[in-house]
Amino acid sequence: ERSYAAMEKFNSIMTETFLAGDSLTIADIQLHFEVNFWHLLFDHKFAPETQAWFDRCLEASPELKVAHEEQTKAGSEFKAFCEQKLVELRAAGPPKLYFFPVSEPS
């Protein structure tokens, strides 16, 4: 819920072309990667304002577009890996916990 609230706040402040005005800045690039990673992991659909900003960032920088594609590929692979591990853990049953006695220091 906090993440969705943060995105709503983000949508409300998007009154400029980019975060700091009419030019792409490091702030846009950093937030772009954070938002994309969140989108990849949770399949969150962007609000129209966020999607428009996201697309403007990609259009403004060919280098960002290449990096975005690499992050998307890596993120998809990471998500698939996590999902597979979750399936394996659930199939294995509850974890076994071992306790070792600890003596008091002399």
Keywords:
106 residues, mainly alpha, elongated
Can you walk through the features of this model?
With 106 residues, the chain is mainly alpha-helical. Helices cover 69% and strands 0% of the residues. The protein has four helices and no strands. It is elongated and about 65 Å long.
Radius of gyration: 21 Å
N-to-C span: 50 Å
Task: Give the SSE order as H and E letters.
Answer: HHHH
The low-confidence parts are: none
Structural class: mainly alpha
* Count of alpha and pi helical runs: 4
Beta-strand content: under 5%
Number of strands: 0
> What is the residue-mean pLDDT, rounded to a whole number?
84
Shape: elongated
- The level of helicity is 55-70%
User: How does the major sheet shape up?
Assistant: none
Question: What order do the helices and strands come in, and which of them pair?
Answer:
Elements: H1 2-13, H2 26-42, H3 48-60, H4 62-92
Helix pairs in contact: 2-4, 3-4
